[in-house]
Amino acid sequence: MNQVLIALGSNVEKEKNVPAALALLRAQPAMAICAISPLYETTPIGGDGSPSGQPAFHNGALLVETALSPAALHDLLRQIEAQLGRTRSADKFAARPIDLDIAMVRQLATDAIGAQMSDTADQENVQVDPDILRFIHLSVPLADLAPDWIVPQTGETLHHVAERHRVENCEQDSQIPRIIRESI
Question: Choosing a second label site near 136 at 20 to 30 A (CA), which of 58, 73, 100, 148?
């Protein structure tokens, strides 16, 4: 069994697409949504890290448990994006109706018969999107759900990464995510 943090974002018809994505995810028999972060309004950024002229994003995160492999979950997320009108392009920073990305995967430790041994994951079995370390729109909602998860690249908790991003962006108020809804 895997615990997975999924980053969610939209800046095209976001009031429609975020709830639609959640409904499609909830309908998946191979996963259970355990928690949903607050929804944040964030300033879109371009490839150089500066604000772009696109509409604001709504960003959040989900904590799910699933028996799907990361590759199978990735494919499922891409199918949901396509259902909601997303066409991926070479422009990583393009506007999008929905963006669903695996941010962190923890494989839970199990005993010989498959029973979960503890609430902790083996740190060697953690997969992390490196963008968590770069972007506040990822780190803040993820830290809301799993503040104590460790980012192996740095040894920091998600909470620490999010707080570092808040401090680094304190002079640029437009870069600080603003909660627009406590729940999606």
Answer: 73
Q: How far is Cα 95 from Cα 110, in angstroms, rounded to an integer?
A: 41
Instruction: Tell me if residue 158 falls in helix, strand or coil.
Output: helix
User: Can you tell me which residue has the tokens 């929804």?
Assistant: 39
Q: Which CATH architecture has domain 2-181?
A: 2-Layer Sandwich (3.30)
C-beta separation of 99 from 74 below 8 A: no
pLDDT, the chain, mean? 84
Question: How many angstroms separate the CA atoms of 61 and 127, rounded?
Answer: 16
| Residue pLDDT, tens place only, 68-103 | 999 999 999 999 999 999 888 787 777 789 999 999
125: tokens are 């079995």
Report whether 144 contacts 137 (CB < 8 A). Answer: no
Give yes or no for residue 139 having a pLDDT over 80: yes
φ, ψ at 61 (rounded to 5°): -150, 160
Tell me how far apart the alpha carbons of residues 163 and 30 are, in angstroms, rounded to a whole number. 33
Checking DSSP bridges between strand 2-10 and strand 99-110, what pairing results, if any? antiparallel
Distance of alpha carbon 67 from alpha carbon 48, whole angstroms: 37
Q: Which stretches of the chain are DSSP H helices? A: 14-26, 70-83, 136-145, 158-168
